[in-house]
Design brief:
It is built from six helices and no strands. It is mostly helical and about 140 residues long. The chain is elongated, with a radius of gyration of 29 Å.
Length: about 140
């Protein structure tokens, strides 16, 4: 019995940060509310006095209901990601993409010299010469 209680305490302590985040995060609550409202609307549209087969046929054929279901699922996914502490990597991915494109342009044999000259003019001013010096003094 003690082992069961210890395991229950361990599980509760594992879940506690998620529950706290879900209770304190306004965006999570909004996502869940939106998903519930959307699901309620879809339920009313589908089962409003219809048989189950008719409701299934409507899900297959009605694009608005399909979109509503997608929206509800997206809201629930967003809420789950926020509760779990998952961050969006959009900014990081965009930065990496831009860095890759910039390096490709700067070191491309066809565009590289002109691009490097343009950057040099922008950074140091036009007509300024920039030379590399190597200090050998130690």
């Amino acid at each position: 019995m003690a082992k069961l209680q210890d395991r229950a305490r361990d599980r509760a302590s594992d879940v506690k940060p998620y529950i706290e985040r879900a209770l304190k995060d306004e965006q999570v609550r909004e996502d869940v509310k939106s998903a519930i409202a959307t699901a309620r609307d879809v339920y009313e549209q589908l089962l409003g006095g219809r048989a189950f087969g008719a409701a299934a046929a409507k899900v297959v054929s009605d694009k608005d209901i399909q979109q509503s279901l997608r929206d509800a699922i997206d809201d629930l996914r967003d809420a789950a990601d926020r509760v779990q502490g998952k961050d969006s990597h959009g900014a990081r991915n965009a930065t990496l993409l831009l860095t890759g494109i910039t390096l490709g342009v700067l070191f491309n044999p066809l565009t590289g010299p002109a691009a490097r000259r343009w950057v040099q003019d922008k950074v140091f001013g036009e007509g300024e010469e920039f030379e590399y010096r190597q200090d050998n003094a130690k």
